Amino acid sequence: MARSRKQRAVSNTAAPTSSPSYIEKKKTLSIKETESQQSWSRTKAIFKYKLVPPIFVLIFTPAVQFLACQANNPASSFEFERTLGNAFSWKVVTIFFCWALLFLYIPSRTFNGPPTEFGYVPVYVDNGMLYYIASFITYLVLHVIYPDLSLDIYNNMPYILGSLNLFALILCIILQYMGINRPQTSEKLERSSLMYEFYRGMEIHPRLLGVDVKQWTNCRVGMMSWQILIIAFLIAGSREGSINPGHAANVFIQTIYIAKFFWWETGYFNTLDIILDRAGYYICWGCLVWVPCFYTYSSFYLVEHQSTFTSLGAIIIVLIGLIAITTNYRIDYEKQIFRDTKGDCKIWGEPAKYIKAVNQITKQPSNLSLSGFWGKGRHLNYTFELMAAFAWCFPGYGHGFWPFLYFIFLLGLLVHRCYRDEEKCSKKYGRFWDEYCKKVPYRMIPYLY
To answer: 322-325: which pairs have CB atoms within 8 A and are 24 or more residues apart?
Structure first.
């Protein structure tokens, strides 16, 4: 009798899990979850493919003119002719573009970038430091010959940005046409809206006039224009005969940062900008227009709005900036040494520790470093890059948020890039990446984030 009651109790307990109503409820919940995921995917796709491209193009393209006027002459109104450039701006832009192109034709060592998923190996010209030094010295020589050069560049900055804008937009259209009608690789790329393709770009490593487009736009034009312009702004700001200590600190820190970039240019060819981003509006317009306008903005702003820093304050902020840049370089150097030796090296005086992984795309063996800075945080290089940027923006303290625009922008950019990078690594390494994240749980700030 007791056994019969017990059996009935078990039967009654189990009944709901096998009843049609329970199964139907589970199916309904599963369908709702699937529909919710599909709805979110559709919303995300609309945002990514339909909204972001036109918003970026319509807002950021004219924004450079507003920013130039805000720093140079806030009282001036928008003038359409500035968007077309003038004789001086087109002369400066043309000479500089040809100069940057020339150094990609000079016989030099070559560097092979990482192969793409479809088997293409990009080839770059390895003479970045030569180009940097030659450009720096040439500008100073030109300034001796033409003493008003820097002041003219500063006064014509809205026109220069207008010329850069027009050229960059035309280049992006050409690259889109080439990618659609005359692709240079065997990559099978799924088509999307023309606006999104213009914004994103069609090809990862297009070549034009015999050179790699992104090496020319990103490194040789974008980064070198950053250097030349901040030197011009420093000289323009000292037109009364004395150099402001805060402005000098601002330019000096940036100069060290840019020189470090050209010293390490081949390392840049392993970053997301090169291996993931396609040559379109986002990266090419960004380097041809946004970098000269926005990355130089703290220096540009300090011409008319003098820094209040004393010499001592300037020295302190320079030291902070140098520490940040040196540490940033050390982090990148550790990654490069680890990659070049395949983990057979010493980091921080000890044999490198790593996770033996397998690339899920190529099925080739790979290693994930657990040593040095890469064992403390997954993106500490971004942290110290932000620290350096804050250091060179800080001399503008007391003039509102304008001198800090670049730091604010970079903060958003690098946090977003952090997640993009991890999404790429997750696809590339699968469960090995999950294991790495468990061993190195922090992204940019150990024990906090």
So the answer is: 322/253, 322/256, 324/384, 324/385, 324/387, 324/388, 324/391, 325/253, 325/256, 325/257, 325/260, 325/384, 325/388
Six token digits for residue 330: 């050390």
- The token duo for 178 is 């080439």
Quick one: tokens of 344?
């057979």
273 touches 218 (CB < 8 A):
yes
DSSP letter for each residue of 278-325: -SSIIIIIIIIIIIIIIITHHHHHHHHS-----HHHHHHHHHHHHHHH
Query: Are 263 and 128 a contacting pair, CB within 8 Å?
Result: yes
Q: What is the pLDDT along the chain (449 residues), one digit of tens a residue?
A: 444 444 444 444 444 444 556 566 556 655 655 655 555 556 655 555 557 777 877 787 888 877 777 666 665 666 778 888 999 999 999 999 999 999 999 999 999 998 888 888 999 999 999 999 999 999 999 999 999 999 999 999 999 999 999 999 999 999 999 999 998 888 888 887 888 899 999 999 999 999 999 999 999 999 999 999 999 999 999 876 678 999 999 999 999 999 999 999 998 998 888 988 899 999 999 999 999 999 999 999 999 899 999 999 999 999 999 999 999 999 989 988 888 888 888 899 889 888 888 888 777 888 888 889 998 999 999 999 999 999 999 999 999 889 999 999 999 989 988 988 888 888 888 888 889 899 999 898 888 88
- CB 175, CB 197: distance < 8 Å: no
Structure tokens, 45:
């796709």
Q: How far apart are CA 94 and CA 189, in angstroms?
A: 34
What's the pTM value of the predicted model, to 2 decimals?
0.84
Pick from 420, 429, 431, 428: nearest CA to 443? 420
C-alpha to C-alpha distance for 123 and 413, rounded to whole angstroms: 27
How buried is 2 (Cβ within 10 angstroms: 0-12 exposed, 13-18 middle, 19+ buried)?
exposed
Do the beta carbons of residue 421 and residue 436 sit within 8 Å?
no
Q: What does the angle CA 51 – CA 379 – CA 280 come to, to the nearest 5 degrees?
A: 35
Amino acid at 179: G
